[in-house]
Records
---
Amino acid sequence: MRRIARRTARRTTGRAARLLTGTALAVLAAAGFAAPAHGAGTRAAGLEVFPATAVPGGRVSVSTTACGNGGAATGDAGAVGAGRFPLAPGAYGGEAAGRFRVPPSAQPGTYEIVAECAAGGRRVTGDLVVVLASDRQPVAPRGSVKTGVGGALGPDPVQTAAGVAALAVAAAGGTWLLHRRARGDGI
């Protein structure tokens, strides 16, 4: 009877594990098709801008497959003040790619980046968001860590001395009580 119960438990556990795994994979797949997160690349009308959010002075890459295999293009980031830049054919499935630097004087806002294919004159656009501070840049910590313990002398040496004195009195009292108990005087 126990063997049957164990087999049934194993089957149930296996089914539950497969069900949970399948559900988790479905959620991950759905998340992959959701809108890109803030700062990820965006594809708008055939032009991918990465990162989609940049700081003044930062580098931005753009790419498109709109120009076909081996197609080159000319990019224009004049809206943000960066001017024109080339998009050269790449090794990734006919994708033309290029880079430009956001000018240090760029103001926060959303700017349209344009690429025009050399053959055929097809125009594709994408958006670039300029912000003053990046979420990805680390911020140096300032001050001390507020753990509640304090330093060796703490913020107030008088309080530290009072605490040490209280601990010494407690240790002496505990020792005296243990000594009385060992002698048999009672507590």
---
Amino acid sequence: MSKEHHYKATIEWTGNKGTGTSSYRNYERSHTIQIENKIPVEGSSDPAFRGDKTKHNPEDLFLSSLSSCHMLWYLHFCSEEGIIVTAYLDEATGIMAETADGSGQFTSVTLHPVVTVAEESMVEKARELHHKAGQFCFIARSVNFTVKHIPSVLVK
């Protein structure tokens, strides 16, 4: 039996400078992302699309979602397998291709997790579990391209 999980986010445009969208340059792309009982996130578009570079943009959040989802599954599988992870850091990268008409899509995402485990004997299994995490990540399973993983495992 499968379960459904429902999510809700409220996105409010805050970029009306007094004349609304009277022209392409007369409004800000600023908005607030609010999830009940959580800290609001100030968003904008990417600076390439007239956005505020100091605020999160959808592309940043998309990449972060893929990385976070992978990490959470990875940590879960490590705990089940007796792999003691003491640190995890990912420098995720993504490429979005923009077409001549202004539309576009992400064409690739590569995760570069650096994982620290407690013992040398855990390294091989720790490396292997990235593949399993990629198979289970809800976000990665929802995109139309393969999310690549280039993991490193350290012992400390």
---
Amino acid sequence: MLARILIVDDAAFMRQMLVQMLEDKYEVCGVACNGVEAVRKYRELQPDIVTMDVTMPEMQGIDAVKEIIGIDPEATILMCSAMGQRQLVIEAIRAGAKDFIVKPFQKEKLLEALSRWA
């Protein structure tokens, strides 16, 4: 059975790129464009893994991580961050994220990171 993934990013092109990179190895069960939607969809879909952007409108990725961990302390969340967001990534890991992937990323690096948690 394929691991179910929720993709969270405010950039439509990034969501689409992630779907295309992952759909042959994982079940992409949903996408969200901000932290508020991510929390709602996490409750609804109960995915195995979440890829979470750091900087988003309405609710930042770190705040969404905190809320999701509050719902499910065992949630597997991988942060997707741009270079230069190191402090935010550290904060996200402290909030409960399991790992991070630096944007822009190659498909192989993304699949390698996800394979550690799937």
